[in-house]
Predict the structure.
Amino acid sequence: MSGSPKYTSVRVGAVYAQREAAERRRREAERRAREQRRAAERVRLAQEAAARRDRARAEAARREAELTARRTAEQSARLARTQAERTRADERALVEVRELIAEAQRSGARADIGSLERQLAGLRERATRGEPLGDAVEELRGRAVGLRTAAAGNRTDDRAAVLAGLERRFSATGPDGAALDADGHRSCTELLGRLRAATGPDAQVRFEALLGTVEHALTRHAATVAEAVRDAEQQALAEAARQARAEQERAAAEAAERERAEALEAALAEAVERLDVVRPAAAGVVDTAGGLGDPGLADEIEGALRAVTDALTARSAAGALTAVAELEGRLPDAEARLDELELAYDRRRDLVAALRDAMTDEGFAFEGGEDERGSFRLHFVRPTGATYETTVASEADGTPVLVYHVEGEPDVTLSAPQDEPVCDTTEALLERVHEALGDDGFVPGELTWDGKPPGRRAKPLPRETSWRWTQP
């Protein structure tokens, strides 16, 4: 029988229970205060994160406004340069038209000169305002050429002057005339060469015959060049607009990428700050829970911590914020469980102290013990050499449990004088130890073991009783 493990559960007395309840309430108050401080810190961090996001958005809007203003200014400058070049070209063309009108007037034209001059004045006003004149200049040029030709009839007094004027009109198309209207430029060059050859004294008729053809060719070439210039200007403006749009899109993409990067950094910083708030408490749970006999709790919180750090390492802001929120949610319950574990540890520790005193009072020698992560193992020896290895553990609800492994104790019964109770030596001895535990607030239940007869319970003899061995 001495080799069979004997065990019993232990409840606490009223006084001990009251003291433990007071300690539990104190711990609950501390937990609430800690959680309130953490909640206040989370609110503060959330407000700071929101302020950082607002500042980042404001800075992004400021940069975008600056970029838009710069692009608008650049586009306006390009447009102004184009308009200025077009205005200068129109002004040069208007000067030529004014000379043609003057030539027509010198040639004797009178009826339509006023109309031409009024139309010329209107075009000058439009050019001054920066308005595009389009084909209006060439239309007026054609009318002036036709009026001068009609007024001159079939005779040109100063062919050299007329030729010089035509050559000035040809050169007025600029160096790009050959590129913008190659056929017209080649035709005008050929016709002017033929007209130049007809300035001799015997070529009056041929000069007059070629003059109208040259003038119309020059008018057509100038109109073609002007249209090509306008087309080139429109293409340049369109290309500038396309480049501006591309630049705008590129800048917008860069701004969006920069904003995403800043938002990522801000979210990661928020996750780190929130982790710093709960990390010490979470690490405390991990470090303590395993030693108090609940490795599952330690693994749970350690896994929650690892989820946050893994997400931060992977620079996953959403994952880090989700993981830290889950850790924050788990921590209050984990701390409550840890407090219960610590209360159960204190209960076991107090029971160990009471048990050691009770057994040494019964003549046992205490030979040390071990803290085995959730339980204590104590070693006692009786003067007879019998060993009692006692484990102080806890059930799932924290109730202490005593387990005895006895070696070297003979299976004998004790007989007391005057017909006092007779019982098994080991059982009676332990019942007496258990009775002594009541002085420290612990009340063990019935001692039992595998194979114990139903309804049997030893009653310890009074402390002053002299025990004697009896053979069964």
Summary: The longest helix spans residues 14-106. The longest strand covers residues 387-394.
